[in-house]
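Exercise 7.
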Amino acid sequence: MSTSSSSRSLPTPRVGQGTWQMESDDRSAAIAALRRGLDLGLGHVDTAEMYGSGAVEAIVGEALAGRRDEVFLASKVLPHHADYAGTLAACEASLRRLRTDRLDLYMLHWPGPHPLEETFRAFDALLASGKILHAGVSNFDADELEAAAAIAPRGGLFCNQVLYHPLERSIEHRVLPTCERLAIPLVAYSPFGSGGFPSPRSRAGQALTRIADRRGATPHQVALAFLLRSPCVWTIPKAAAVAHVEDNAGALDLTLSADDLVDLEEACPLGPPSDGLPML
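Solution. The predicted structure, written as tokens, is:
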């Protein structure tokens, strides 16, 4: 099945909202942050049944109450649930927790024990019923993505969501080029390194600060703009506080110069290909 995305695209803007580990945050603050993100146009909200064993989907459902039509809502099925019947049941449970009748995007969280044909057959059934509008994958290496694209559900694979941040660029060796060639958007999760953002004293941190000062931006906004230098890439930084989501939204208006990109390429070197796909 063709994977061309000429008639498909992720929602604008290219900066969305992630929710991993949000069950550990103050609930009211997290809900306020998600709603503020919608105010700022960060309408791509990503979650998963795995996050907090469903607790995060419930938080997201509460945050989106009355605003569902403003949101491109994505969730994921766990690999051990992803046979035909299990995928259908997992999707129904996610819909209940999210208080919605549809998901804009449903993904297999990572390759697992069940044949992809079974998972994708369930995705086709969910697409036909309107319970999901697009299907995708997450944490697929280049070879896995090629194989998945060859048997993709109707409409093709909508995206591949992978770990990608300035200090973890190994997906640029093969995964990102494969996404670009197949016209499958790459969604970067944990774009700040999940607690590993470069120290201001490090070479990378100094470059981010230097460019931020030149551009009237913040280092986090520069990091997001660096990842978005490929038009194939989208990103879903998590923010559980209003100030953080407002900072993330500031990246939408930031364009880095060629000199900025060279500076960051040198300060955050690509490094050799990794043996496997990096994951959190």
